[in-house]
Design a protein that fits this description.
single chain, mainly alpha, about 95% helix
C-alpha cells in the first residue's frame, strides 16, 4: 500500500508541476500582453498630447488670421470698387484716345500734299 501511495503522489506531483508550469506560462503571456497594451496606450497618449498641442496652436493662429481677415474684408470691397471705377474710366479714356488717334490719322492721310 505504501507503494501505491508513493506512486500516486509522484503522479500528482508531476501533474501539479505541469499545471504550475502552464499557469506560469499563461501568466507570463498575459503579463507580456498587458505590457504591450500599456506601451501602446502610453504611445497613443503621447501622440494625442502632441496632436492636441498642435491643434491648439493652429486654432490660435486661425483666430488671429480670422481677425485680420475680418478687418481686411471691408478694405478689399472698397479697393475693388475703386479698381472697377478706374477700369471704367480707363475704358472711356482709351475709347476717347482711339477716336482722337483715328481722327488724327484720317486727317493726316487725307491731307493733301503740297
Amino acid at each position: 500500500m505504501a507503494t501505491d501511495y508513493e506512486s500516486n503522489n509522484r503522479v500528482n506531483t508531476a501533474w501539479e508541476r505541469t499545471a504550475n508550469l502552464i499557469g506560469v506560462g499563461l501568466l507570463m503571456v498575459l503579463s507580456y500582453q498587458a505590457g504591450l497594451a500599456r506601451g501602446r496606450g502610453d504611445k497613443t497618449m503621447g501622440q494625442y498630447t502632441a496632436l492636441k498641442a498642435q491643434y491648439d496652436r493652429i486654432e490660435t493662429e486661425y483666430s488671429s488670421l480670422k481677425a485680420r481677415y475680418d478687418g481686411l474684408a471691408p478694405q478689399y470691397a472698397a479697393m475693388r470698387d475703386r479698381c472697377d471705377t478706374a477700369a471704367t474710366q480707363y475704358s472711356a479714356l482709351k475709347a476717347q484716345y482711339d477716336r482722337i488717334e483715328a481722327h488724327r490719322a484720317g486727317t493726316t492721310i487725307n491731307k493733301p500734299k503740297q
